[in-house]
Amino acid sequence: MIKRVQAWLSRKDRQEEQPVEISPDNIPRHVAVIMDGNGRWAKRRGLPRIVGHQNGMKAVKRATIAANDLGVEFLTMYAFSTENWKRPKDEVDFLMRLPVEFLALELDELIEKNVQVRVMGDSNALPNHTRKAMEEAVERTKHNTGLILNFALNYGSRKEIEDCMRELGNDIKAGRLSPDEITSELIDSRLLSGGLPDPDLLIRTSGEMRLSNFMLWQIAYSELWFTDVYWPEFDKSHLLQAVAEYQRRTRRYGGLK
User: Fold this and answer.
1) Which of 41, 50, 148, 254 has the smallest number of CB atoms closer than 10 Å to its CB?
2) Residues 152-184: tens digit of each pLDDT
3) Of 134, 153, 155, 146, whose CA–CA distance to 67 is shortest?
4) What are phi and psi of 61, to 5 degrees?
5) pTM (two decimals)
6) In this structure, what are the phi and psi dihedrals at residue 113, rounded to the nearest 5 degrees?
7) DSSP secondary-structure letter at 179?
8) 201-244: per-residue pLDDT in tens?
């Protein structure tokens, strides 16, 4: 009986270790990620929340390298939302130091891998050290032609849409624009993600199943993939699982195929 159980467990382990089948012909061009669960990952281990955020930073590097190797062209990471300012000041201060630390450690390698760094969000409210680190990364990588790593930092989709509508309204008021000229393409170009294609695949970690004010306009037809894995545990195998699931789906965009 024991031998049978051992044989069954051995078979189960081998099944779980089988590589995920990925077609190189259907890789999502743009993957967006809501990185969630740093605090809960730390709490389960009896560690301070900041340790979770530190390990989450390592997961950003793993995901970036994995996406680049896979052939993803755009990777947007939800790093800090406009609502995250409500967190305790010590935690917010730490989160504002993380981009500085991450880029100090990883920027040279990102440049080596031909990654271009971009940022979308309201940079005016960021501390000087955070803003300068991001500006340096954008400047030093602006001529790179590989994966675009786009950080959503102090970003909120509703504010983004409000600002876009206000800008269009001002243009109409000033006579620079007619209401009849407003199209989806024009709105796309005025959003903070202007110049990027809409995400094909949205990933959210930690088991939560909500969008949390992230790219609400842009993900209208994105495929959604949720996992119970906390962000600090996220690695290449999870990205492959998400892409494999993406490839099993048929994107109809409201039509029939």
Assistant:
1) 254
2) 999 999 999 999 999 999 999 999 999 999 999
3) 146
4) -65, -45
5) 0.90
6) -90, 10
7) G
8) 999 999 999 999 999 999 999 999 999 999 999 999 999 999 99
Q: Give CA 182 to chain center in angstroms.
A: 28
Q: pLDDT band for position 14 (50/70/90)? A: very low
The residue written with tokens 């786009």 in the block is 150
Q: How far is CA 222 from the centre of its chain?
A: 13
Report the C-alpha gap between 156 and 142 in whole angstroms. 24
Instruction: For residue 67, give both structure tokens.
Output: 């996406």
Between CA 52 and CA 48 the distance in angstroms is 7
Of 134, 131, 150, 34, nearest to 84 by C-alpha is: 34
Residue with tokens 């199209």: 183
Q: Is 84 a catalytic residue?
A: yes
Q: Answer yes or no: 122 catalytic.
A: no
Catalytic residue among 68, 84, 150, 154: 84
